[in-house]
Amino acid sequence: MKAPLTVSSSSSTLFNNISIRKMSISPFLFTTLASIIIISILYRSNSFNCLFEQRMRLTTASITRSSRSAEKRSDHGELPFVVGKSEGGAECDVFSGRWVKDELNRPLYEESECPYIQPQLTCQEHGRPDKEYQYWRWQPHGCSLPSFNATFMLERLRGKRLMFVGDSLNRGQYVSLVCLLQSVIPENAKFMKTFDSLTVFRAEEYNATIEFYWAPFLLESNSDNAVIHRVPDRMIRKGSINKHGRHWKGADIMVFNTYLWWCTGKKMKFLEGGSFDDENKTFVEMETEDAYRLAITSMVRWVEKNMDPEKTRVFFTSMSPYHEKSGEWGDEPGGNCYNQTAPIEDPSYWGSGSRKAIMRVIGEVFSESEIPITFLNITQLSEYRKDAHTAIYKKQWIPLTEEQLGNPVSYADCVHWCLPGLQDTWNELLFAKLFYP
């Protein structure tokens, strides 16, 4: 049974007055006033409220469907951290742009001028016949990157520690930054030393250090030896970030990365009991995305506990892509980055090596951080650079077989990057975000 309509005292008085005086007003005016009163009564009635609520439910359902559709589209389309051309925004997205040839201003230094480049990255020294990969400059849509200024950066780093933490790709970015800075420092006022997992470059005049710490998973793992770490069965210890984190304390600027070592093609193993060398150790297996989320969450919690946002800056470099399937960018199948001399021109290109699910994990975890973490989104711009890898032009630590020598594609390194080259751009982006946020 429907609830009876109720009339407020003010509405009842108004209705009575109209009834008493109905002979003295025109029928048109009476009809108009009566309509207003009826609408006023209905507005307060349950039936009107139900109608209003039904409309709200329909509207909410429509919004929910639209939201779900957007989520569904994001599974296959543009992601929060995947760059695309910015349209109409007040700020310029420096990660969205294109590569342009600039032989006048590139490279930013010569390979022979920087004694700190590892032999795995000195492509010219190891016989690369072309230098085209050195001449490309990243041009954001709608703006330009600030020019890298070594003296300016060193002055801003005076008395400070800038630390890179992660794997060999982060080490490549570290070496690139050292090369960008070292030329303005007198020879007797700079040095680089390695202490187990920690490598330190010191600029004496500025009382500044630029450091790299080897921790490919950020958490403790059986791959933590900075030299001997090519273990076939990778394993990580849960809740162990402090094992490495105690070496990071006191840094003023942190640049983290971790991705490559998670690409095993199988589930990740987390040690629960015993040591990595124990025969009777206990462990659990986790899907890669779940394991990665655990590690990134540990990193964020460590940052929240140990970093002062008033004094420190924290960065995270996104996935560095690899180019091992030439068919993905339109070349004949069976090839890879070997003998590639130009970037990919398709602005929407995204290779199979960069997992969008991992990008989502980063976005979700970082969004809950209590301390700002600047995301250096180098993935898409690096996806275009199939030409910039070391390929076969590097020091080979293991002698190559006759079969390999006869087929360079078989041993080309399509993961790491020549220096000078692409990773200098990563540091130009770091420079921009650090000093021109």
UniProtKB/TrEMBL annotation:
Task: State where the protein is found.
Answer: Membrane
Q: Which InterPro entries match?
A: TBL, TBL_C, TBL_N
Spell out the molecular function terms from Gene Ontology: O-acetyltransferase activity
Q: Which domain of life is it from?
A: Eukaryota
Membrane topology per the entry is: Single-pass membrane protein
Extract one GO cellular component term from the record: Golgi apparatus
Which Pfam families would you find in this protein's record? Answer: PC-Esterase, PMR5N
Q: What is this protein called?
A: Trichome birefringence-like N-terminal domain-containing protein
